[in-house]
Design a protein that fits this description.
By secondary structure, this protein is an alpha/beta fold. It folds into two domains: about 70 residues, no CATH class; about 140 residues, no CATH class. Helix content is about 25%, strand content about 20%. Strands 6-5-4-3-7-8 form a six-stranded mixed β-sheet, with helices on one face. A two-stranded antiparallel sheet has the order 1-2.
Length: about 220
Amino acid sequence: MSELSAPEIEGIYETQMSLEFRVLMQLGCICAVDPTEARRLIQFGSNNMDSYALSQLQFKSVAHQPYLPKQDGVSPIKHIFLYQHSAPNSSRSMWALILGPVKKAYIFVLDTVKTNQVPNMNTLYTAERTAKINLGTDESTLPGQELTWEVAAESEGRAVWRGVQRALQRYRDERCGPTVVALQTALSPAALIALMPGLSDFPLVPLHVRDVETLYNTLE
């Protein structure tokens, strides 16, 4: 740091800043579409009112609009959950996408053959949820009691990734509000986005929980 603060240093320039950082530095946490740009988009009949160029947005202070205000004491940020575990030295893996706000959940089994041997998830989920409540877990901290489960067995990874992205797109189409994706995956966020670009539409928060590699050995 002493070298950077020397009198002859006039400025320090960073050329590898992420696009997200540049946007936050220019717009902050609250922004709005420039009214002139909004009228122009409507005038030209734009069909894409969800994506804007940085120049079309304006900074707004929290005095103009509070940042993510609570509603009835509840945070407006929704949470969904993506799980992935791969068997060591194998192409087999388990994927799960839990969309609590819309009461839907998806399980994808990736194996060499399309054989669905997943037990009844409604029964299994209800039993696990009840067990946690009986052990003293506050029910309000758990996902809702009713989840609609969809299970698919695939033999190609691309089919799994397409399935996850379709489910995320349907979730977005329902406009559930600000949502964070919690990740419990062996793959890094960057690797997941490379496989499923639709994940880049959500903030990703890795959970520091790692399954043991031999988790599914009993299924051999």
